[in-house]
Design a protein that fits this description.
The protein is of the alpha+beta class and about 230 residues long. It is about 15% helix and about 25% strand. It is built from three helices and 13 strands. The protein has an eight-stranded mixed beta sheet. The chain has a three-stranded antiparallel beta sheet with strand order 10-9-12, with no helix packed on it. It has a two-stranded parallel ribbon with strand order 1-5. InterPro entries: DUF1826. This is DUF1826 domain-containing protein.
Length: about 230
């Protein structure tokens, strides 16, 4: 598992694993794994990583000083540091958190050759998208800095006819969307997740099926998302 920090070089080796039966997801331990999203059959990439303690301290300080923090911005990767520095509360761990945020903007924009990135950083006390769903966009990056990570389903474990109105008003666990609770996959805090949507060319009907995790009473999450601007 990698530990990503501004002062640390990117490892030139990558570990990839996938299900040999259905090949729709890839798990890696270096940022190079993100390029697997360009493979036609892949709709989810997870880059496992460990976050520095300074980032955990920043998240806790952010929650304490701004419990409803919600930053939405269109970021130019070339000026990301200056843009984000003024938008983030200057509390303990600020530099480490800012460096990581800028790094992810640079990685995402480089991967998809973007001149601008649509960024959202939020403190959440509830699940924003509690039902399993697909996105009608190209490819979203999600990273949970604090709290439980994104939940998702393998293609082989999901009945897509039960998404949306197909659930007939039943909950995800009762609709037949998936067979058993063990089918639900979940990423770890700090992991980088790429979710290919149905707006990706040729991916109609195959968007990554995912949802926000439940949030316990008194618990908060710090969640970053990036989209094509």
């Amino acid at each position: 598992m990698i530990s990503v920090g501004a002062a640390e070089p990117v490892n030139n080796t990558t570990y990839l694993s996938h299900d040999p039966c259905e090949h729709n997801h890839v798990t890696g331990d270096t940022p190079e794994a993100m390029t697997a999203i360009y493979q036609e059959q892949i709709n989810i990439v997870v880059v496992q990583r460990s976050l520095p303690d300074e980032i955990a301290r920043y998240c806790q300080a952010l929650i304490e000083c701004q419990p409803h923090f919600n930053l939405r911005s269109v970021i130019n990767p070339k000026t990301a540091e200056a843009s984000l520095k003024s938008s983030l509360p200057n509390v303990s761990g600020h530099t480490a958190f800012l460096d990581d945020l800028v790094l992810l903007v640079e990685m995402y924009s480089c991967l998809f050759e973007l001149d601008e990135v649509g960024l959202r950083l939020q403190v959440l006390d509830r699940a924003m998208c509690p039902r399993f769903h697909i996105d009608k966009l190209g490819c979203r990056l999600v990273s949970t800095y604090q709290g439980p990570g994104t939940e998702w389903l393998r293609n082989s474990d999901v009945d897509r006819s039960k998404l949306g109105a197909g659930n007939m008003g039943l909950s995800d666990d009762a609709s037949g969307l998936y067979s058993q609770a063990a089918d639900i996959q979940q990423v770890n805090t700090g992991d980088i997740v790429l979710l290919k949507g149905e707006g990706w060319y040729g991916n109609e009907g195959l968007g990554a099926v995912h949802r926000s995790p439940a949030v316990k009473q008194g618990e908060k999450r710090v969640v970053l998302t990036m989209d094509f601007a």
